[in-house]
Structure formats: structure tokens, C-alpha cells
């Protein structure tokens, strides 16, 4: 299975192939203050972003752009993990450090936990991971099993995909499906039919990384269709706008999937700004950039909108001593327009 | 020996259960009752699932001396989830040593933030403190505020088991993180020379950076500050903040050095009030919170 990983050198992200795209990013067309003006008053929820590979600057910019909550799906960190402990550490960082770091910028952090498809191909390790998953999926703020599904569409990928669907069913948790970048259409259909075969309610399943080729079938079968806005790749945000124009807002959601590749944690607000420019109604924009994601993942019972819609209100014990949890009394926002670094 | 103690006092479990009973609903206590207390896997998953069954109601007033054998252990301002989790851990204490350690280790390994808080809060109640000591000193290094708080604030474990070095780290990091040192259990009892030196260094660094330190930090320095540091104390007298001037006065009132006595004569504003016991370090913490 490791042999497959040499392909990653062509892959700027875990799901996109730079070579099969000539899409030019559109997000630079707006000036910053025009952009800010367009999204004024919006709140955004990014249901798919890998903050573990992003910087603190990203959190500041995201908060400023109106992102109030994110979901971080467990995925591949760029190179194969060699043992169970590194999986444990990774899952723990999703529910621990990353959640904490996010809270420092007023952004509510949730996650989905799962064994990713690439690493499902290491059977020995995958079995060990399956054993510890139950200790993670019932944790506070874990809003689903994810992202799981197919990458190379191997038999082992299918085996662990099925096992995790069963786990999701038992725990009554939503599922976040990663669809493969190669042979996407077939992979997407296969993912959906297996989910149905296991008796999952499609309204509990978010199929991710859709495009024009897959969206109709996903929606027709009652699944949520998520779209990843990722520069230089298949889904730029101009095309996203067209999809919303064609299919409406029902069960459609947008995410950034920002990770260690060339990606943009502001993909949602930028796409929203573009939709505003194109005259799409605010109600529709709100649905695809905020409400639908909440509706889908709140089925976990773990999302309480009051926790973030008017700024982050943390657990009373967090703020009990009224302290700033930042080092040495740092403030969460600094003035980025100043030359002075105090 | 241990069995005699156990028979003399109610067990930790039953003391905590009493508090839980006073604060939970019928449904909540039923769930807590239904957990099999001798099955380690059941205890672990219940520990994880607690927030699904127990509300995060904050516990207000409880006895400050809840468990007489463990002075300083208290559950005031905890939420019910945290208390329920700590209570579940008291049953793990009854397991054979290996199983107890393994269960707690697994919970630590896989813990999220609130679970970590519960685990560190439970340390004073767990057997084999030497096993948990490295975890506790690690928690002091945590960048996650509430994990740090769980070990540093109102927790008697560090007071009882930390080495001087680890203790000093805890106190310094509390100051560094701008948290209230007066909430560290045993702060006064474990004052020491090395801590005073490090505190003075720290204050100098902060002043060089144009920042200040809370006035009650000076209680760590008082008794240990040497005559060569007199300019620091004078600077404190010249501070615009009343609490700094009081801190300087308290240091002079506690010092036997002649030069400090002369300084006190030069800046006598709070001398009388200190003699009349209007001011001491604890009052400084309360008034200038
Ligand atoms: Zn992803």
C-alpha cells in the first residue's frame, strides 16, 4: 500500500490532482474592503477544514471574515502514520489542542473522527485503529464519523468503510464521505450504494468533494452534497455559484477543505461574496454557507448553535478564573496593519 | 493501616456521591447508578459519554473540607460533568494496581479537554501518586489554559507531591499566564528561596519589556529579597498603583534589613495601616483582584 503514496507528489492536497485542471482561482478579483463589505453581517460555518495544518494567522483571518464554527474531519496528515500512538495523538489533537487553539479566536471547533481511506490500506494498523475509535466517537464535540470512503477504491478501503458505517449507525452519528479524485463518479456512486446497503439514512450522510458530474445523483438519492472550493482545482468558486443557481440551496453546503496543500481557509466567505455579487439571495447564501452544515451535523446531538452564533461562549470552567489562556496575557487579535510587533 | 482509615471515614466515592445526589436530577442519578462500577471498559466509555447524560450545571457552595483526609480538595465551581467523571474514577481506584493504572493511562492517552480537566482534578483521590506525578508536572507545561488550571488552581496534588523545581515552575507559570496565584493551594507554605530568585528575575524581565506584574506576586519575594535589590522595592514605592505601594510596604514591614527600614521611613504612607492589620498579602489579593 505504501507504493501508492508516490503519487502524492503530484497532489497538492489529499483529494485533488493539479494536472487535470486548468481552473484559475477567482478569489483575488475582489479588493479586500469590497470583499468585507459584501459579506458584512454573514456568519459562516466551515464543515470541512484541516486546521491542524493551518497557522494561527488563518484563525485570525477566519474570525474576521465571519467564520464562527468549523468541523475538522480526521484525515491523512501528508505522510503515512507508522503506529497506533500517532493516530491517538492525532485524534487527541483534534478534540484537544486544536479545539482549544480555535477557541482562542472565538471559533467553535468540532471534529469528525474516522480512519481515512488511504491508511485503511494498512490492514494491521487499521485493525488497531478500529479498536480505539469507540473511545473517540462518543466524545463531546465529535459530530460524526469522517472523513471516510474511497481513495484508490481497494478492497481494504471498502472493508474499513463498511465497518465505520456500522459504527456510525450504532452511535447514531452523521457520516462525512470523502470521494476519490480519480474515477470520482464511480467512486461516489459506490460510496452511496454501500451506505444505503448498510441501512444508513441518507440525511445522515454528507457526500463531499462533489462536482457537476456527481451533484444530481447525490441530491436525488437524499444525501447532502458538499462542495470543496479549492484553488487551481476542479471546483473554483465561479462554478460553485453556477451550481447553486442551478440546484438551489437545499442540502448543498460549501467547505474549504483547507489543509497543507495550496488551499484557502477563506474559501467560504469569498464564495459568499461572489454569490452576493451575482445577486443570489442572502437566504440561499446563508443556507449553503451556514445553515445546511449545521442541520446535517447537528443530528449528532453535539452542536448547540447558541455556543457560537453570538460569539463563543465557553464552558464556565474555561473562563472561571477570568484569565486569558493565551501566553503572557496576549490578546487574541493583534493589529496586522501595524509595523510594530508588541 | 489503610483499612482502618477506610473504616473510619466514608469513602471518597460516597462523599462525592452525596454531592452528586444534591445537585442532579432523578434521571441523571439513575444513569450514574446504572453504570457497572467494576467493569473497566464500561467505566471508561461512561467517562467519555458523561456529557450526554449529565448537565453542565455549576456546583455552588459545598463544604471547603469535603474530604477531611485530603485538605484542599474541593469541588466548588466544578460542573456536574466534571464531578461525575471524578466520581467514576474513584471506582477505578478499587481495581488491582495494574488494571487501575492501565485504565487511567488509557483515559489520559485518549482524553479531550474536559476529560483531561476531570483526570487532573481526580489526581488527589487516586492511589499510586508517584505514577501520576509526571503527568501532573506535564500538565503544568500545557498551553491549554483549563488543563493548566485543573492542576494548578485549587488542587492539593502539587502541594503534596511536586518537587521544589516542579512546584516553582507551577507558580512561575501561573504568574506568567496572568492567573491568580492566591488560588494555588499551599502557596504560602511552599514559599522558598529559589522561587524568590526566579520571581525577581521574572519581574525584571517584565519591567524591561514595559509590562508589570500583579502586586501580590511580591509575597513570594518578601523574606528573601536582599539589600542589593533595594532599588526594585523603591521602584515599587514609586509606582502609580496603590497595590504596588502596599506591596512594597509589606515587604519592608517583613524585612529585618536596615536599608529596608530606612526605605519604609522614607515612604511611610501604609505603615500604620499595616500595623493595624488593615493590609496583608491575602487582603491585597482580594481587594486588587
Ligand atoms: Zn479533508
Automatic annotation (TrEMBL), chain A:
Protein name in UniProt: Putative metallo-dependent hydrolase
GO MF annotations in UniProt: hydrolase activity, acting on ester bonds
Q: Which Pfam families match?
A: TatD_DNase
Q: What species is given as this protein's source?
A: Leptospira biflexa serovar Patoc (strain Patoc 1 / ATCC 23582 / Paris)
Where are the residues of the annotated region Disordered? 1-22, 319-342
Provide the alphabetized UniProt keywords: Hydrolase
Could you list the residue ranges forming a coiled coil in this record?
Answer: none
Here the segments flagged for biased composition (Polar residues) are: 332-342
Q: Which residues form the signal peptide?
A: none
Q: Which InterPro entries match?
A: Metal_Hydrolase, TatD-like, UCP005295
Amino acid at each position: 500500500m505504501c507504493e501508492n503514496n508516490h503519487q502524492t507528489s503530484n497532489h497538492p492536497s489529499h483529494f485533488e490532482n493539479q494536472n487535470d485542471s486548468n481552473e484559475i482561482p477567482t478569489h483575488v478579483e475582489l479588493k479586500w474592503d469590497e470583499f468585507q463589505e459584501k459579506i458584512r453581517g454573514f456568519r459562516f460555518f466551515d464543515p470541512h477544514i484541516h486546521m491542524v495544518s493551518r497557522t494561527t494567522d488563518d484563525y485570525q483571518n477566519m474570525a474576521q471574515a465571519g467564520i464562527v464554527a468549523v468541523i475538522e474531519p480526521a484525515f491523512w496528515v501528508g505522510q503515512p502514520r507508522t503506529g497506533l500512538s500517532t493516530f491517538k495523538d492525532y485524534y487527541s489533537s483534534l478534540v484537544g489542542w486544536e479545539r482549544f487553539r480555535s477557541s482562542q479566536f472565538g471559533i467553535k471547533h468540532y471534529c469528525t473522527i474516522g480512519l481515512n481511506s488511504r491508511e485503511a490500506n494498512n490492514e494491521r494498523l487499521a485493525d488497531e485503529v478500529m479498536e480505539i475509535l469507540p473511545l473517540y466517537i462518543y466524545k463531546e464535540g465529535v459530530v460524526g464519523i469522517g472523513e471516510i470512503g474511497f481513495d484508490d477504491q481497494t478492497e481494504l478501503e471498502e472493508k474499513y468503510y463498511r465497518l465505520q458505517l456500522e459504527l456510525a449507525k450504532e452511535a447514531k452519528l452523521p457520516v462525512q464521505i470523502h470521494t476519490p479524485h480519480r474515477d470520482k463518479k464511480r467512486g461516489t456512486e459506490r460510496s452511496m450504494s454501500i451506505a444505503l446497503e448498510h441501512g444508513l439514512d441518507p440525511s445522515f450522510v454528507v457526500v463531499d468533494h462533489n462536482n457537476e458530474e456527481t451533484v444530481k445523483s447525490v441530491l436525488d438519492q437524499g444525501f447532502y452534497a458538499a462542495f470543496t472550493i479549492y484553488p487551481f482545482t476542479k471546483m473554483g468558486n465561479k462554478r460553485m455559484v453556477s451550481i447553486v443557481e442551478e440546484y438551489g440551496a437545499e442540502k448543498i453546503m460549501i467547505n474549504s477543505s483547507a489543509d497543507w496543500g495550496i488551499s484557502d481557509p477563506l474559501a467560504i466567505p469569498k464564495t459568499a461574496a461572489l454569490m452576493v455579487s451575482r445577486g443570489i439571495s442572502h437566504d440561499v447564501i446563508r443556507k449553503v454557507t451556514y445553515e445546511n452544515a449545521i442541520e446535517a451535523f447537528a443530528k449528532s446531538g453535539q452542536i448547540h448553535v447558541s455556543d457560537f452564533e453570538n460569539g463563543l461562549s465557553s464552558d464556565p470552567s474555561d473562563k472561571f478564573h477570568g484569565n486569558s489562556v493565551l501566553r503572557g496575557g496576549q490578546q487574541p487579535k493583534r493589529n496586522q496593519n501595524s509595523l510594530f510587533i508588541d | 493501616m489503610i483499612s482502618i482509615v477506610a473504616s473510619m471515614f466514608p469513602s471518597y466515592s460516597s462523599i462525592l456521591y452525596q454531592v452528586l445526589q444534591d445537585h442532579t436530577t432523578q434521571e441523571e442519578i439513575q444513569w450514574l447508578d446504572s453504570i457497572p462500577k467494576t467493569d473497566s471498559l464500561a467505566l471508561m466509555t461512561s467517562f467519555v459519554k458523561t456529557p450526554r447524560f449529565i448537565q453542565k450545571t455549576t456546583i455552588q457552595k459545598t463544604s471547603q473540607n469535603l474530604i477531611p483526609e485530603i485538605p484542599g480538595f474541593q469541588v466548588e465551581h466544578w460542573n456536574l460533568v466534571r464531578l461525575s467523571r471524578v466520581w467514576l474514577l474513584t471506582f477505578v481506584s478499587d481495581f488491582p494496581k495494574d488494571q487501575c493504572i492501565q485504565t487511567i493511562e488509557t483515559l489520559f492517552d485518549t482524553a479531550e479537554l474536559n476529560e483531561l480537566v476531570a483526570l487532573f482534578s481526580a489526581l488527589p483521590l487516586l492511589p499510586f501518586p508517584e505514577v501520576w506525578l509526571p503527568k501532573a508536572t506535564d500538565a503544568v507545561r500545557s498551553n491549554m489554559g483549563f488543563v493548566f488550571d485543573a492542576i494548578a488552581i485549587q488542587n492539593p496534588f502539587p502541594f503534596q507531591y511536586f518537587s521544589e523545581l516542579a512546584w516553582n515552575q507551577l507558580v512561575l507559570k501561573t504568574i506568567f499566564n496572568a492567573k491568580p496565584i492566591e488560588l494555588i493551594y499551599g502557596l504560602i507554605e511552599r514559599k522558598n528561596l529559589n522561587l524568590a530568585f526566579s520571581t525577581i528575575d521574572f519581574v525584571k524581565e517584565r519591567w524591561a519589556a514595559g509590562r508589570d506584574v500583579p502586586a501580590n506576586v511580591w509575597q513570594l519575594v518578601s523574606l528573601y529579597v536582599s539589600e542589593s535589590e533595594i532599588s526594585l522595592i523603591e521602584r515599587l514605592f514609586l509606582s502609580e498603583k496603590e497595590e504596588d505601594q502596599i506591596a512594597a510596604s509589606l515587604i519592608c514591614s517583613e524585612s529585618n534589613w536596615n536599608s529596608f527600614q530606612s526605605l519604609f521611613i522614607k515612604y511611610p504612607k501604609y505603615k500604620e495601616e499595616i500595623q493595624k492589620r488593615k493590609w496583608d498579602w491575602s487582603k491585597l489579593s482580594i481587594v486588587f483582584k
